[in-house]
Amino acid sequence: VFGDLLCAKKGKISVFYCGPPALSGILTTKCRQYGFAYKKELF
């Protein structure tokens, strides 16, 4: 999914996440790898 988004990139890409911390760590790593902004929300 991240690779497809990168290929279709039309500006800055941001990923927003609210959920279990384990997945947040994976998303943080992937966002850094692909150069996406990452925003974690806690409710």
User: Poorly predicted ranges (pLDDT <50, ≥5 residues)?
Assistant: none
The coarse silhouette is elongated
Residues in helix, %? 40-55%
Overall structural class, as computed from helix and strand content, comes to alpha+beta
Task: Report on the biggest sheet.
Answer: 2 strands, parallel
Total helix count? 2
Could you give the order of the helices and strands? HEHE
Strand order of the largest sheet: 1-2
Mean pLDDT: 89
Number of strands: 2
Strand content: 15-25%
Euclidean distance between termini CA atoms: 26 Å
- What is the domain total for the residues? 1
- Alpha-carbon Rg, integer: 11 Å
Protein name: Ferric reductase NAD binding domain-containing protein
Organism: Adineta steineri
Summarize, please:
The chain is α+β, with helices and mostly antiparallel strands.
Q: What does this protein structure show overall?
A:
This protein is α+β, with helices and mostly antiparallel strands and 43 residues long. It has one domain (2-40). Helices cover 47% and strands 19% of the residues. It has helices spanning 2-7, 21-34; strands spanning 14-17, 37-40. The protein has a two-stranded parallel ribbon with strand order 1-2. It is elongated, with a radius of gyration of 11 Å. It starts with a helix and ends with a strand. It comes from Adineta steineri. InterPro entries: FNR_nucleotide-bd. This is Ferric reductase NAD binding domain-containing protein.
Question: What distinguishing features does this structure have?
Answer:
Ferric reductase NAD binding domain-containing protein, alpha+beta, 2 helices, single chain, two-stranded parallel sheet, 43 residues, FNR_nucleotide-bd
